[in-house]
Write a structure and sequence with these properties.
The protein is of the alpha+beta class and 149 residues long. The protein is built from 4 helices and 7 strands, in the order E-H-H-E-E-E-E-E-E-H-H. The chain has a 7-stranded antiparallel beta sheet with strand order 1-7-6-5-4-3-2. A hairpin with a 2-residue loop joins strand 6 and strand 7. It is globular. The two termini are 20 Å apart.
Length: 149
């Protein structure tokens, strides 16, 4: 099976500490990504994201953590992304903006289109939540952006 990678870089108009907290704090995640997140934020620690009914749709394990700079973890999502890994690298552009480089690696060709839609939505939601406090649910975002899975 051919594996591929999805990459995206965004700029968020806050410092890396705020972005890192928003990516790793369960209360912040509830506001822009998942209804319920359980996180053991340490190398080797596990995490899950679930919906309001408790259905776990995403899980993984932290492989490398550098606070305010790097998150690298394994990821499985609703039967997608088997053995895949995600890397988020944060770097300060100036005192008030962060460049986030995102890579989802070891994707099958079948998983790539789903990953592209999921991460486009998630990264846009992250940026909007931090900068404006607004978010959009995944399915309405797909429709508004003419995306089909």
């Amino acid at each position: 099976m051919n594996k591929t990678e999805y990459h995206q870089t965004i700029v968020i108009n806050v410092n890396p500490e705020v972005v890192y907290k928003t990516l790793t704090n369960p209360l912040d995640l509830r506001s822009w990504y998942s209804s319920n997140s359980q996180i053991a934020l340490r190398e080797g620690g596990h995490f899950t994201h679930s919906d309001f009914e408790g259905y776990v749709f995403e899980s993984g394990q932290f492989l490398q953590i550098r606070p305010n700079e790097l998150l690298y973890y394994s990821l499985e999502h609703n039967g997608f992304y088997a053995n895949s890994k995600v890397q988020l690298t944060l770097s300060s552009r100036d005192s008030e903006s962060t460049q986030l480089q995102f890579t989802h690696e070891q994707l099958s060709e079948m998983d790539y289109s789903y990953a592209q839609a999921q991460w486009d939505w998630a990264l846009q939601n992250l940026k909007n939540y931090i900068e404006t406090g607004t978010v959009q649910a995944f399915k309405p975002w797909l429709k508004a952006n003419n995306r089909v899975l």
